[in-house]
Amino acid sequence: MASNFMSVQERRIATLSGHFRGAAAVEEELLQRFPTMAMAPSVFEHVQQAPEDPILGVTVAYNKDPSPLKVNLGVGAYRTEEGKPLVLNVVRRAEQQLVADRSRNKEYQPITGISQFNKLSAKLILGANSPAIAENRVATVQALSGTGALRVGAEFISRHYAKPIIFLPNPTWGNHNKIFPLGGVPQKPYRYYDPKTRGLDYEGMLEDLKAAPDGAVILLHACAHNPTGVDPTEEQWEGIRQVIRSKHQLPFFDCAYQGFASGSLDKDAHAVRLFVADGGECFVAQSYAKNMGLYGERVGALSVVCTNAAVASRVDSQLKLVIRPMYSSPPAHGAAIAATILADGRLFQEWTVELKGMADRIISMRQQLYDALQARGTPGDWTHVLKQIGMFTFTGLNKSQVEFMTRQYHIYMTSDGRISMAGLSSKTVPHLADAIHAAVVGAQRKS
Ligand code: LMR
């Protein structure tokens, strides 16, 4: 029976004969024999070109720019003073140990990942003496970094929680807005950042949490809020805890920066531990992308802190049912690196020193940028550069100022005015300060 589709053999013959007769002749013959080839539209013809991701797309644009002046302050990824990605020494040492260990193999991991990694991750965020761990009421699963942990948590909530609605801070990390609805949990915003003070809108936040339904899920950034760099004080955290607990709401912590914000792993875990100490339940998504520099290895964990061990065990069993059809089981290598570091006292100590080194360099970038803006007499109050914490400064620059800085100065950043302080170096601070100065002065002239 004549068919309009070419077999593999026919295609080979057509290709070979093309060498002898020329492509145009072959094309003509093919069109005669297979007329639908010319007309058949793709079944995906209707597919629209998607926009680039608002954060990762900045790197795509940066990579295309041939200018030697270019600086990428878009994605939150640590760079050395030389502007290079950093692999921690302690990570290299752990990796060497793993490679040298001939007893290791490449078998599938359990659905919930490496159990030692899970236990150590829970201990890292909840504290070595956490009663929740001692009472066996924490279900922890390995996840594909923070994003994977959030996504698995979202799907579990949509299947098993009576109030599947989540309140997100405004603004929040752009991916949160997509992860939860796609995971089956509709989202709403709560007030968080006050553009006038470039600080926390504490009153607005409490008002919105009080107005949110009883039992709603509340997403909280454990430390170093992304994108604003604005965190509640310890006293404010206590106020937030009281409101959330009084309304029987369910806190869901996103902890992407433990140790990276202040340089201290314990200090950055304060908010999570405060909520766990009251005996109530919560979710915690952890990422080792920033604090161990394991970005591309996708290492993270999701912990569900429950009120008793029997529930935790049943939650664990259901998390497996979420994970298995999603990606079956997590990758081994990155989590094995993290577990090696977390399990070994000396490596752990070395890690804390390197981590503090990264946090301190970021803090020194804040001071240098602030000083450079002062030296140029840049109009406005720039003390928020010093006050905000963690990886990002939410500069207050608007979209057209950002576009100006990219066009004229080849500085790449997200359009909301967020800059990654970890991408700056002493060499690039003056260039950034020049760009900010010109953008601010230019905007003043226009208005
Ligand atoms: C960021 O906010 O830049 C990082 O968390 C990287 C990412 O995945 O968006």
TrEMBL record:
The keyword Transferase applies. Residues 70-436 form the Aminotransferase class I/classII large domain. It holds the Pfam family Aminotran_1_2. CDD domains: AAT_like. Keywords: Aminotransferase, Pyridoxal phosphate, Transferase. GO terms for molecular function: L-aspartate:2-oxoglutarate aminotransferase activity; pyridoxal phosphate binding. Its EC number is 2.6.1.1. It is an enzyme of class 2 (transferase). It comes from the Eukaryota. GO terms for cellular component: mitochondrion. Belongs to the class-I pyridoxal-phosphate-dependent aminotransferase family. This is Aspartate aminotransferase.
